[in-house]
Amino acid sequence: MQFDDDADLDTSEVRDVRGSRVPGGRATVGGGIAGVIALILGLLFGVGPDQLGLSSGDPAPDATASSAAQVARECRTGRDANTKDDCRIVAVVNSVQDYWDQEFTRRDAQYATARTVLFTDRISTACGSATSAVGPFYCPGDRQVYLDLGFFDELRTKFGSSGGPFAQAYVVAHEYGHHVQNQMGTLGRTQDGRTGENSNAVKAELQADCYAGVWANHATTTPDESTGRPLITEVTRADIRDGLDAAASVGDDRIQEKFQGRVTPESWTHGSAAQRQEWFTTGFGSGDMADCDTFR
Ligand SMILES: [Zn+2]
Fold first, then answer.
1. Which of 18, 32, 209, 257 could bridge 279 with an S-S bond, Cβ 3.0-4.6 Å?
2. Beta strand 144-147 with 232-234: parallel, antiparallel or unpaired?
3. Which residues contact residue 206 at a Cβ distance below 8 angstroms, ignoring those fewer than 6 apart?
4. Contact, 134 vs 49, CB < 8 A?
5. In angstroms, what is the span from residue 137 Cα to ligand 1's centroid?
C-alpha cells in the first residue's frame, strides 16, 4: 500500500491519547491468562466494550490533558504515512472516511465524520472503560473508533496473521463499517445479545467486513480533499492477501480452536474465517455496499 507523498493528512480525524493516564487505576493488560480470556470474550473488532460487562462511569479523558498528541505533530503528509505506522493509520482513516463521505453524498445522505482514538493500555468511553485486551472496537455511544496500535503486533504473534500495512487498513475499515451501520440504523437492530452462526451479531460483523472490502475497492480511486488525487496510490495483490489473512485469523472458529481447543458455533459473534474472507471479498469485488446485505 502506497500513499501520495504530497497529500496532506487530516489529523483532526484521529485523537492521540497514547501515554496519558485515565482515571480508574493502573492498566492490567499486556499478557497473562486474563488478557487471553478477555480476547476470547471480546472476540475482536466488536462494538463497544460494554459487551464484556466492563464497568462504566469513568469520566472520559480530557483531550487537553494529553501531552502526547504525537500524530498532530508528526503526521503531515502522505510521505509520513509511507514511513510511520501511526501516520499510516491517520491516512487510512482519512481515505476510508473520504470514501464514505462521497458515497453518502451520492445517496443524498450526510456522512458524519467519526474520530479514531489511539490509546495505550486503558481507555474510558461512552460504552464503558476498556483495556487494550478487548482489541479494536467502535463505540456507538460516542461514535468513535478505539485502537491500541499494540494490537497489530498481537495480530501476528497471538493470532498468526501475516500482518502488514493492509492488515491494519482492513481493521480500521472494518471499524468504520460499524460507523456506517450506526448511521444507517442497522447497528442498533443487531444488538440483541444473541450469539451463534446465524445471529444478528455475526451478520453485522460480516457486513462490516464487506464494507471494508467496498472501501478497499475504491481506495485508489477516491479523490483526496487536499489534492483532488487519490491519497492511496497503490494497493497490491499482496496487500489484499494480507487483509484476507487478517480477516481469517480473527474468525471465530480460528480463535476458538486456538484458545479454547474446540469450535462452538453457537457462541460465535463474528463469523468463521471463511465467512469473513468471503464477505470482504464480496465487497472488494463489486465495490457496491448494496451487495453487503448479510441479513438477507
Ligand atoms: Zn466488528
1. 209
2. unpaired
3. 270, 271, 275, 276, 279, 294
4. yes
5. 7
Mean pLDDT of 96-120: 97
- Other C-beta atoms closer than 10 Å to the C-beta of 248 total 21
CA 178 to ligand 1 center in whole angstroms = 6
Q: What is the pLDDT of residues 217-267, one digit of tens each?
A: 999 999 998 899 999 999 999 999 999 999 999 999 999 999 889 999 999
Cell of 224: 483526496
Does 22 have pLDDT greater than 80? no
**Is 27 exposed, middle or buried, given 0-12, 13-18 or 19+ CB atoms closer than 10 A?**
middle
What gap in Å lies between CA 125 and CA 139, rounded to an integer?
Answer: 7
Q: What is the pLDDT of residues 182-226, one digit of tens each?
A: 999 999 888 888 999 999 999 999 999 999 999 999 999 999 988
- Ligand 1 centre distance from Cα of residue 227 (Å): 31
Return the pLDDT at 191: 81
Compute the distance from residue 212 Cα to the ligand 1 centre, in Å.
10
User: Ligand 1 center to residue 45 CA distance, Å?
Assistant: 4
Helix (H) or strand (E) holding 130: strand 128-131
Phi then psi dihedrals of residue 205, to 5 deg = -65, -40
Give the Å distance between the CA of 235 and the centre of ligand 1.
23
CA of 185 to the centre of ligand 1 (A): 15
CA 65 / ligand 1 centre spacing (Å): 29
What single-letter amino acid sits at 214?
V
Q: Tell how strand 2-3 and strand 232-234 pair up.
A: antiparallel
